[in-house]
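Hi R.,

Here's the chain you asked about this morning:
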Amino acid sequence: MPTFTWADWTTNLSRTNYLVQDSLGHGIGGPYYDQLDALSPSAYYYYDYPNPLAKDYLAYLLFQVEVNRAWSTKPVVPWVWLRYHDSSSSFPNFIQPFMAEATAIFPFFSGAAGLWLWENPTLVQSRTDTYAAYEHFTHGLYRLSRFADMFQGTYELVIETPARDLMDKQLPVWRGVVNGNKILIAAQNPYAADGVKTSLTVRYKTWQQTIELTGTEVYLCQFDMGTVTATEPDLVDVGVFPNPTQTTLSITFGRLPVRPTDLILLNTNGQSIVRRAVNSVKEIINVENLPAGLYILRIQNETGSQTKK
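And here is the predicted structure, written out as tokens:
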């Protein structure tokens, strides 16, 4: 995952499976994709604690949901298995209890429409395992079900940092869902040692709260935000022209952004070709020495971002 930037994962068509590309390779579509009712990535786990790679499990799971939602509006329903994958040295052991509980809760905060729960039928017939992991998974579903109304009607997912970046920087994972003046927060630090405290600030617009996690506990808590004032949009009336261009690219703003704003020109591999700060309502980027091709311009600051092809 960290080999490619989040911008590359979400704009470079070569990162997608050829089966879901149209016949010309210009985008998502085609007869196979059109027949799909849902997208079902396989978010199986391979590494058990204390292997350092085991700690990436949650970011890996959420990435499967988030990157598919970036490419498609079809429902995303990942496959999950409460054992380690059969190509893993830990197979057929069950995953850790906190992993099972988090697997039941977090995908919905990244926009999953459901979960496919898988078990190998051959194992069921040939083994006498204790299925305690299922109890922790079911407990996670029960905890989330107490806040089912948060995912009904009009609601907004709060995803401050893409899962890809959480893995890259090994950061605690948190996601939120806002419905009315309430926010439900799910959080976990998969990288924490047992008993170690993690202080984490969660936020939405002008509301923020510092929470404390212990070890790898799965945190789930609802807050009443009262009246939340939206942050005034900063990137308004953004124009990019001419497009296509051979010499210079002009970027204009309806008003100068109040907050520090960056212009980042990326190639289709997600590599940053040009990066500069916005200092005026009209910025010009010289592109005449760049190879011909498709580029992505990202305009971003702390209030959000826009991308232009």
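One quick note: The chain has seven helices and 15 strands.

Cheers,
M.
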